[in-house]
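Q: Hand in one record:
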Amino acid sequence: MLVAHRQSNETLVLLQCAANAGYVSMQPMHSETTTDPSAAPYAPARAVARLQAELAAVRVELATVRAQRDQLRGGLADVLAEQVQLRAQLADTQAQLVAVEAERQATRQELVDLKRAPFVPRQRQTDGAAAATPRGRPLGHAGSSRPRPTRIDRTQTIPAGDTCPDCGTPFTGTGATRERVVEDIELVRPTVITKYVIERRWCPNCRTYHEATVTDALPRHRLGLHVLLFVVYQKVALGLSYGKIQHELRTYFGLSISVGELPAMVAEIAALFGPAYARLLNLMRRQAAIHIDETSWRIDGVPHWLWVFVNDVVALYVVSRSRGSKVPQALLGSDFDGVVISDFFSAYSPLDVAKAKCWAHLLRDSYDYAKGQDADSERSRFHHILHALFVEMGLALEQVQADPTGREPVYAEMRTKLWRFATQHWRSWQCQQLAERIKKYLDDLVVWLINPAVDPTNNAAERALRGAVVTRKTSFGSRSKRGAHAFARMLSIIMTWERQGQDFFTTAHQALTDACSQN
């Protein structure tokens, strides 16, 4: 366009020069052609008119070109401005990309550190301002070690020889002795195989043969009770997979068993302990306080729930399809007059029994709401005041532990303080939510101050479920209802005997031996 404009200007200049030259040249021509007076006046006028028309056309074209030039300049300015804007956006995007890449690298390094953390030795504090905490027990503390066994099964003499092992010189004198006691285990490989020769006698009155019962194995079983109980304990109490149990039996004892046999062993042992499981249910219903909790459990991929009812005396596990209130209602029964300790799950609200709520859940929720907040924020202040109230309750209760009548004043005072705290004007919805929870469960949160059998938290139930949760993560639940109920039944037996200080292998072996004798 600029080239066209320049060419138009040059054309205009040439036309103007030609017009001037034509006018000048007309004067000599006029003097020479005076003999033709009719043609002289019209020739220059026609040329001038034609040139002026061309000049006007060129000026119009020049104005058009200038307008187009201005329009293109405006478009160019817009394009340049858009280019600048796009470059700025590109710079911002590149900066964000760099930040994201840095964050990704930091996250990857953090993940690597977390994976490596259990295997990295702890770095000692090198700051001289902070005194390093000495390791071990305080100076002057009485030492402790493994107690010396009181039973000696065998004694073995280790002779010193006749010559020195270093230089070969013969020993002189009678010498001396010292004692060293070593406690070890024996892996019986191969296994002990017993052949029973069973005598049968004819009874003329009953008209049948009778024989004594083999008490070291179940009827029609080729494996003894110790093998069955070992499989049950490894699976239920320790949460090992059947594949690992098979590997243990082969490695420790040289006993080869297929994986398919092991679940049947657990189910059969659980069926024999059915009456004992029913007695645990009756024992649980007679408790003054019981902790209840639940966790997910799958049976062949279908969601179920594993419930636990536990205290210091009994632990009862039940697998149910439901997570509703009908499960604890059915298990507690209509005659239960103790206190149910639980979290704030809604399934426990319809229970028509005395209830206590877990302070650990309440404080954990308030801590989560206060996490990341400023120290002077409302949520932080809410958590600190609530935690201080809980500590104050515990200290006040410790002072009246020896005086049962002193619990009532502590109960009344702390209940009033907790109510006043909850009824304050809280602005954030998190504090309002927790305050409403406190007002709703006020009596359930302070019942532990008046009832010695009640704990302030439900940690006992959560700890009782911890082993089952590990088993669920390694085995993904159970393959059948039979296996799930067998797991819950045997877990109840093992955990109850553990709380009562009874050894599982000894007690279970005696119980099965008695059952075999009776049958």
